Amino acid sequence: MIGFNTISTHDWVTLAVGLTGALSTYLSQRDRLPKWARKWLKRIGSQRITDAIERAGAIAELSPDERRQQAVLYLQKVCVGELGFPVPHSIANLLVEHVYQQWKRARR
Question: Is the pTM of this model over 0.70?
Answer without folding.
Answer: no
